[in-house]
Amino acid sequence: xxxxxxxxxxxxxxxxxxxxxxxxxxxxxxxxxxxxxxxxxxxxxxxxxxxxxxxxxxxxxxxxxx
Length: 66
Hints:
mainly alpha, Arc Repressor Mutant, subunit A, 4 helices
């Protein structure tokens, strides 16, 4: 069974999908860029994604599937 993302992780994926960098996401969410990168690592691990782009694709496809 796939692990679900936290609210913060879903927020970060949404910002990744809009094309923001880790630094830009950190500035928007008042987080250090390294904290954002750690969250992205957790997201990719939970989703078994190869990279941040793959994590966004997985999340979008899951939301479209319902």
